[in-house]
């Protein structure tokens, strides 16, 4: 499902116009993004949680030249952990 299909599904379930549904979706995504950028997390009970984790620097290998190690710098990554309700529904 892409964004357009998601907007259409939201509009169908809520009775909002597609334009209003897109505004709501954009606002929700922007709010989640802003919270993660500021170092926080977003927890949606039953659905899951978004958080930022630190990845330490490490050494990698180029498959084409395995004898030459590559230094991979430290970075941050966004992770999503599914909630128990969502996990149960997916595994039915």
Structure description:
With about 90 residues, the protein is α+β, with helices and mostly antiparallel strands. The chain has two domains: about 40 residues; about 50 residues, IHF-like DNA-binding proteins (HU Protein, Chain A). Helices cover about 40% and strands about 35% of the residues. It contains three helices and five strands; from the N terminus they run H-H-E-E-E-E-E-H. A three-stranded antiparallel sheet has the order 1-2-5. A two-stranded antiparallel sheet has the order 3-4. Helix 1 packs across helix 2. The two termini are about 20 Å apart.
Topology:
Layout: H1 3-14, H2 18-37, E1 42-44, E2 48-55, E3 58-62, E4 65-72, E5 75-82, H3 84-90
Antiparallel strand pairs: 1-2, 2-5, 3-4
Helix pairs in contact: 1-2
